[in-house]
Write a structure and sequence with these properties.
The complex is a heterodimer of chains A (about 375) and B (about 575).
Chain A (H helix, E strand, L loop, with lengths): L9 E2 L11 H9 L3 H18 L1 H4 L20 E6 L2 E15 L6 E23 L3 E10 L18 H37 L1 H16 L2 H10 L7 H32 L2 H8 L4 H37 L11 H5 L5 H6 L5 H23 L9
Antiparallel strand pairs in A: 2-3, 3-4, 4-5
Chain B lengths: L6 E11 L4 E12 L4 E5 L6 H9 L7 E10 L5 E3 L8 H10 E4 L3 H4 L6 H12 L4 H14 L5 H4 L9 H13 L5 E5 L7 H18 L2 E6 L2 H7 L2 E6 L2 E7 H6 L4 H12 L5 H9 L5 E16 L4 E17 L3 E5 L6 H8 L7 E7 L5 E3 L5 H8 L2 E4 L3 H4 L6 H12 L4 H14 L16 H13 L5 E5 L7 H18 L2 E6 L2 H7 L2 E6 L2 E7 H6 L4 H9 L5 H9 L3
Parallel strand pairs in B: 3-8, 3-9, 6-7, 7-8, 13-18, 13-19, 16-17, 17-18
Antiparallel strand pairs in B: 1-2, 1-4, 4-5, 9-10, 11-12, 11-14, 14-15, 19-20
The chains are: A alpha+beta (about 375), B alpha/beta (about 575).
Amino acid sequence: MLFRKKQTKKVTYENQDYGEVSQVRLIWRSFRKNRLAVVGMVLIIIFYFIALFCEFLAPYDPHIYSSKNVYHPPHAVHFIDRDESGTHIRPYVYKQKMGRDPKTLKTIYSDSEEKIYLKLFAHGDPYKLWGMIDGDIHLFTSENVEDRVFFMGADRLGRDVFSRTMVATRISMTVGLIGVITSLVIGIILGGIAGFFGGLVDASIQRVVEFLLAIPTIPLWLGLSAAMPREWSGATRYFAITLILALVGWTKLEREVRGRILALKTEDFVSSAILDGGSQSRIIFRHIIPSITSHIIAAVTLAIPTMIISETSLSFLGVGLLPPTISWGVLLLEVQNLPSLISGPWLFFPAVFVIVVVLAFNFMGDGLRDAADPYVFMRR
Amino acid sequence: MQQKPLLSIEHLSTTFPTHDGLFYAVDDVSFDIARGETLCVVGESGSGKSVTARSILQILDDPGKIEGGRITLNRSDEESLVLSDLSWKSREMRKVRGHDIAMIFQEPMSSLSSIYTIGNQIGEAIRLHSNVSRKEAREKTIELLDMVEIPRPEETVDRYPFEYSGGMRQRAMIAMALACDPLLLIADEPTTALDVTTQKEILLLIKNLQAKRNISVMFITHDMGVVAQIADRVVVMKHGKVLEDGNVVSVFNTPQHEYTRSLIEGARILDRPSSIRRDMRVEKPIKGEILRVENLTKSFVIRKGAFGAKSGETKAVDDVSFSLRAGENLGIVGESGSGKTTLLRSILRLIDTSSGRILYRSRAGEEVDLCKLGTNELRPYRTEIRTIFQDPFASLNPRMTVEQIISEPFIVSGCIPQEGLHKKVMELLDMVGLPAASARKYPHAFSGGQRQRVAIARAIGPNPRIILADEPTSSLDVSLRIKMLELLLDLEKRLDLSFIFVSHDIGVVKYFCDRIAVMYKGKLVEIGETESICASPQNDYTKKLLSAVPIPDPSYYERRGREGN
């Protein structure tokens, strides 16, 4: 069960049992008491699911443009369909016709009576899943591919913002993950060395960290990204960006690891391991690292949203990822100027995704951090 | 003539919600506290004694809740107040706390704010409950500090808590508690964190103040010696229930309940040498020297400034010499900060020594200076000299199963093949009296006593010759303490062990050790046979230490009381 059950049983000193369970179960027990964290976790799972199957989940090809649909506003979806044959429950939208305002010559869309039906698991735009597997089945798409349905409207080239946001999820969610993994590797190695050996090694690593933290990040990123050759492909740029993000990101993780190791080094069970005659690597990898993994996972979860925000900001400023690569930042690049914001306020939808994902990560990270050491409460 | 008791508790139940259901920490408890009496609530850890006290003032830790029962405070025969009907945050309840009932806790440092002076904090308490000016409050504070026998109160009133010693802080807490002339003082193990010499002073102080001001005291403790010293009446609690309630002399002389009997018996056993040990010495006489410590010094350098320039040093262990003979138990006693643990850690080479030699005669018969060996050269001796730490909650890796913990030294040294490992672990678990099923469990599934057994199994695993034990029983309740010591003696007999046993508890050392070394401020002040040191201590500090140990016999204190001591 996800949430706590109502308590009825009477527990006395005799039948009290505070667990013959592993650390993971104990962490899960205290984690699930934090409802926001559980909600955050469910959202994150959903978003990574979207990232994994974005081609299938997006109704259309995100790159296909059409002059007929420039700044098409979002469609309202109807579910109850009444026609001559009776009432049915099936989703549809009213097709909108493009026209022009006779006075201002502005593009306007007006409702028509024509219906566009939505179909589940229907054939639509062809795609290559993960760049490898050919397919054209989408979770849902319009009955006729030519009649497009825009849940979140269309952009200035008539591309479907909803499909683009879904596809952008992959890049934006993994930039955070890969960036954090890179910084984690650096952070654990340097933090481990600093914490375990101390002394001069520790002091010099700490000075480097302080120096890196003192550099203003946005100008640094701007400088590094501007140095990237424009002719680099999307994939190369993507990895370069993650590296740039990791370059600054590792410092916080390094401090976390170092602090934990410093605290653990004086614990009696580590002394016991030394007295058991264990080698230094055994003490580090068998005794110290397992004790800090849960803390590291919590720290990582809190570091990912920072990475996502950083990528979004860089791309928004036009120095991160560049079109045709699609990320949330690249999508938000569209609303950099006021005119396009006025013509299509729905172009802000990707920002909603960013906010939801960052909040979800923060909720889950907070929950994990609180649950990370289930043994603290048993010491009393 | 006032007839009603000051406070009466009827059928009190306090619960804590847990993962498995409601946990009854206090389960249908009833007792009274009369005016001017000292009531000792005694029981082992987790018996619900603190929760009972906190229920009276409604200051329970968060999920805790008073489930049922009635707590009545009779300010006088005419004026009664049902505390259990009040909300914990009501104005009346706030008035009761501090004004009618005051409480002092085990750890004075965490009850005092470190950013205000002592005078500030006591003055604050006075001004909260009575309408006086700052100046009057300060005068009253100085008066109170004088009353709790803090030297030079006019000066010390402006000091911060960190400038006070542990005993002085507890005195300041008592002063604060008495600031508004409460009717009842609840003291929750106020001396447990203190050294035995300081404990004696605080107990005397509470006793004197109570006689002078005629307040009632509810004193929570686990130490039967303390009970004998100060109680008028005793309530014995176990598992959230009251087992016995009676006059201190009658409880000690004719305990009604099995559990009370075992508590008193336990306290008395620990005052005498163990018969197991005596028999063993006849059977297996103590042999020659096995470990000799010569002029051992460990100093900690105090560094200051940005470049860590040396500005001074403290000698935690100062020129200590002694020797340990094979098959002997040597006790090292002293108060906290006397350097006993540092000495132990130096011998284990967990910390580097500053000067001196630690000469160990190995099984092969050669003598080595452990101080000179590097990490790798020490490894063979790690199996011959083992240790048991004080806190079994910290010394077992919570992420490893018991089997993994016990087999760690074998895996590291590779002296037992993989297939023999499980059998060896089972054998060791059996030796320390743990069921075979324990092997698969994690440390958190065990109580403190069981965890300490796991730690013992780990220590005896590689067939050692010397075990250095750092207060292995101090975190355990009395009944468990004796069982643990018996286990250690039994293992000593079977495995030919020698012990260096560090403790602040004289009773435990009397029971367990053949010789005692007394440490004071880093120096070894006296060493000799246990019996002769206890009977006729030579050093002044030893005398003071031994006379401060509470004796679990109320009639002893009655006699002394009559003699005017």
